[in-house]
Amino acid sequence: MGAEQMADGADQGADTAGRGPADGGRGGATKQPPPPPRPLDAIDQDILRILQTDGRASIRSVAERVHVSRANAYARINRLIDDGVIRGFSARIDHERAGQGASAYITLKIVQNSWRTVREQLEELPGATHIALVSGDFDVLLLVHAPDNRSLRELVLTRLQSIPEVLSTRTLLVFEETDLGPGTAAGPRL
Fold this sequence. Notes:
Blueprint: H1 3-7, H2 42-53, H3 59-66, H4 70-82, E1 102-110, H5 115-123, E2 128-133, E3 140-146, H6 149-159, E4 166-174
Antiparallel strand pairs: 1-3, 1-4, 2-3
Helix pairs in contact: 3-4
């Protein structure tokens, strides 16, 4: 949703910046490169911290907290959205309370130069919440949430290991998680 709808306290649906379909308003298959990054000043950084902590904050409250006019806050948030700094608004989920009590980080070794193909297939996996191409002893780090260990095992043994470009996997069960988002001990405080 755009900043205008945030100011009105409107629903913050999954649509990014009110730009239409789930492609973030890029108009389907036509992808344009993002604009070159602009430097962010202290006010932009403060706005980002506020929205990371509370993506439903109204324009009015953001403006008051960073000591700028409502119009200035509105323009800055829209610029951050247009520049691709803000990619969307979402809710932080307690996966266990949402029926996804089994979580795991899964490392994958993949065929060289197959990242794009593998990534597309990993994005389709149920419960996949984070995918990263990394360096080191493995190539990909995947975070998944599943209803239970049986579902998790099925995901790894049937879905992941059937991807031809996946050479091997290692599953690391998550016993406990702590979200270190803004406002926690490890993140900056407002």
